[in-house]
Amino acid sequence: MNAVSKPLLVMFIWLVGGLSLVMAASPPPDQLVKQTIDEVLAIIRSDEQVQSGDVARIAEVMEEKIAPHFDFPRMTRLAVGRPWRDATPEQRRALVNEFHNLLIRTYASAFSMFNAISIEYRPLRMEEGATNAKVNTLIRLPGGAQPIGVDYAMKLKDDGWKVYDVTVAGASMIINYRNLFSEEIQRGGLDGLLTSLQEKNAGGLSTAAGAQ
Q1: Which domains does the chain have, with CATH numbers?
Q2: What predicted TM-score, i.e. pTM, was given to this entire model?
């Protein structure tokens, strides 16, 4: 499993007013991660379409249960890096949309393989009133394989806590994508990156997993 796919394969396993009101109304970040993971694992273990490998149904579940808890605009900005400053509003919107779609499409076909995993949640260390948090978990795989540490970097926004990076065994999803995007930008600029993402997404759900 390569450094880019590992964070994303794990990624899908978990899933207005003043700031004080948001903090009071929103579940703590570790609770949100646990609730999302529990919901997703329940679907993996009970949904016949998911178990049969129906990628359209899997993508639907990912959009419903996981995508709302990710800050795709921030993730895209961080993955693109410094060239983001030079992007037009139209380019930014298109890049966020295509990166969102890429994450969903690329790993939808691997969704059901996590039926047998178990998750260990580490105690949350966060100061009262903090708006940034890191939720640490340990993924225990079947067959006695080495457990995988998974950390979720999260930010409190107006609509609750959002994930903006996932680190698996020390490998940051954002940094790995930044390296890939940097190569695309060097070859063809931001438009070249956008075209590359569009081409990958146009490949369809059944073939997207091989695009990376």
Answers
A1: 5-203 (3.10.450.710)
A2: 0.80
